[in-house]
Amino acid sequence: MMCYLTGNNGIKLSEMSLTAGGGAAGNEKILSEMLKDLDGLFGGTASASYLDGVVQDWSSDPYVQGSYSYSMLDTYKSSYDSKRKQLAEPVEDQLFFAGESSNHMNPASVPGALQEGERAANLIDELFRKASTIS
Question: Mind listing the domains of the chain with CATH numbers?
Answer without folding.
Answer: 7-60 (no CATH), 83-134 (1.10.10.1620)
